Amino acid sequence: MIDSQFAPPVERLVEYFQRLPGIGRKSAVRMAFFLLSMSKEDAEGFADAILKAKEKVFRCEVCQNLTDTPVCKVCGDLSRDRSTVCVVAEPSDVAAIERAKEYKGLYHVLHGVISPLEHTGPDEICIRELVTRVGQGEIKEVILATDPDTTGETTAVYISGLLKPLGVKVSRLAYGVPVGAHLEFADVVTLMRAIEGRREL
User: Which end of the chain is more exposed for a tag (fewer CB within 10 A), N or C?
Assistant: First the structure.
C-alpha cells in the first residue's frame, strides 16, 4: 500500500479506481474525490448500478456478447445475415463496429486474445464456442476482427487454422488504422472501409 495522507476509506476507494484500465493514481484520486462530492443518494445510485450490472448482465448463449437476456438483441434480430459471423476480442468492439452501420451479420465475442505473456491460452477465451457454432453448418463466412497487434494476429491465425478444415470462408479485416491500434478508438469511416475491404486468409 502506498503511504498516503488520505483517510483509509478514501485510500481504499482510490485503490479500486486504479484497478480500472488506463487509470493511474492521479486520475484515481480525482475520481475518488468526485465520488465523495456526490450526494448520498447519487453515491448509492452509483453503487447500486454497479451491483445490478454484475447481477443482471451475463453472456449471450449464442455469441457470448454481454446482455441481460438469454439471447442478445443482435442474435435475436432475424433481419441480420445469419451466414456471416464477425469475431471480436471484446464486447466494446461490437459497439464500435455497430456504430459504422455497415456490417449486417452476427458476432462472436472471444473475451480476450491468446497472449502467452498474460498466460491466456485458447482455452481461456471463447474459441471452443465459435468452433461449435461454425460446425452447425449455417455459417458461411467468419470475419476475424481482432486488433492488428501481435496478440490479435496470433489469435486470428490460430482461429483460422481451426476453421479452415470446416469448409467455411475465413477473412480478415483490411485495417486502415496503424498496427497496435484498437477497434474501439477507430472512427466510423475507418471501420466501414475495413469491413468493405476484408481479405480472405
Answer: N
Give pTM, 2 decimals. Answer: 0.79
- Give CA–CA dist 165/178, Å, rounded: 31
Using CB atoms within 10 A of its CB, is residue 42 exposed (0-12), middle (13-18) or buried (19+)?
exposed
Cβ within 8 Å of residue 64, ≥6 positions away:
108, 109, 110, 111, 126, 129
| Half-sphere exposure at residue 26, Cβ-oriented, CA atoms within 13 angstroms | 0
What are the chain's domains? 8-56 (1.10.8.420), 59-200 (3.40.1360.10)
The three-state secondary structure class of 10 is: helix
Hey, how many other C-beta atoms are within 10 angstroms of the C-beta on 35? 15
pLDDT of the chain along its 201 residues, tens only? Answer: 455 688 999 999 999 999 998 999 999 999 999 999 999 999 999 999 999 999 999 999 999 999 999 999 999 999 999 999 999 999 999 999 999 888 999 999 999 999 998 899 999 999 999 999 999 999 999 999 998 888 999 999 999 999 999 999 999 987 665 556 677 777 776 777 677 767 677
Closest CA to 186 of 108, 105, 113, 97: 97
